[in-house]
Design brief:
Layout lengths: L6 H16 L8 H20 L1 H8 L3 H10 L5 E2 L2 E2 L1 H10 L1 H24 L3 H29 L4 H32 L10 H17 L2 H10 L3 H4 L2 H17 L3 H8 L8 H21 L1
Antiparallel strand pairs: 1-2
Helix pairs in contact: 1-8, 1-12, 1-14, 2-8, 3-4, 5-8, 6-7, 6-8, 9-12, 9-14, 10-12
Length: about 290
């Protein structure tokens, strides 16, 4: 049985869907959001530079030391009995560093299984693997977030109540920005191995527009399956992104991380055809998610 989304939830699902397909968390929605996302990305990039020693510690299998170092960088502040927005933001951002090693293992393993399933024309197994992958990544991010705020002596009840309180106070878009940026940032844990030209990038974007518009059977079936209730609807933009990545790999032999690297180059957006393709991709995704929500 389906469920009804609130107006705010519909807006968030549509915006997150657009941001997910672009891989840069809604960078192209409007100027104000573009600036906020750029600032958020810069914060995460700065955090990455400060985390190099922490990541090296994780590689040396000393996870407890890594967690302790991350904890020391977070200043826990309250407004009354609720956590401040800055504190919640720091927890969400820095929990990425606890995820990276496992994220790489999950992604590379599932990626191989998905492509084997497609090679065997096993559509049912492929769809199961797409769903499994995105659930695993979401669960990983959730588990590390909980581990981090628990280590700071913050209960799950206090954390969740603080988030809901702030959203009721008008912080919905700010939380969307953080979540969308995190979804893109975690993907950067896998290094890019290929360099694409601008022309190749435009070919790939044009292909993505065609896929979203025409909705091949794997994509259409996955959307139909996940549209049944509110909880699985939240996975639709993630599943769409995963399927798009697989189609692009089959046609162009490029991975998601290669595309991310190219799309982070601001010089590419001076090209008029590139701008047109980005607008087309935004519109195609908006129509797709709008019809679902």
């Amino acid at each position: 049985m389906g469920s009804t989304l609130s107006k705010k939830q519909k807006q968030g699902l549509i915006l997150f869907g657009i941001g997910t397909v672009f891989l840069i968390g809604g960078l192209y929605i409007d100027d104000k959001l573009k600036i906020e996302l750029k600032n958020q990305q810069q914060k995460l990039d700065s955090n990455d530079k400060g985390q190099e020693d922490i990541q090296q510690t994780e590689i040396s299998s000393n996870h407890d030391i890594q967690l302790q170092q991350i904890k020391e960088q977070i200043q826990v502040e309250y407004t009354g009995d609720k956590l401040s927005f800055d504190t919640i933001g720091q927890i969400l951002e820095k929990s990425i560093d606890l995820c990276k090693k496992e994220y790489i293992q999950i992604t590379l393993g599932n990626r191989k299984q998905r492509r084997d399933a497609r090679t065997q024309s096993n559509s049912q197994l492929y769809q199961q693997l797409v769903l499994q992958y995105n659930e695993q990544v979401e669960n990983l991010l959730e588990q590390k977030k909980i581990k981090l705020f628990t280590s700071l002596s913050i209960s799950e009840e206090v954390f969740q109540e603080s988030v809901m309180f702030l959203m009721d106070q008008g912080y919905f878009q700010q939380f969307f920005i953080i979540q969308a940026t995190i979804k893109q940032k975690i993907k950067e844990a896998i290094p890019s191995t290929k360099i694409l030209s601008l022309e190749q990038l435009k070919q790939i974007l044009d292909y993505q527009v065609q896929i979203i518009t025409n909705k091949p059977i794997d994509l259409a079936s996955m959307i139909q399956t996940l549209s049944n209730n509110q909880e699985t609807q939240q996975l639709i933009p993630l599943a769409v992104n995963t399927i798009l990545a697989d189609y692009c790999f089959e046609k162009f032999q490029i991975e998601e991380e290669d595309l991310i690297k190219m799309m982070q180059n601001p010089e590419n957006y001076a090209d008029q055809k590139m701008q047109k393709l980005m607008n087309q991709l935004e519109q195609a995704m908006y129509q797709l998610m709008g019809a679902i929500a």
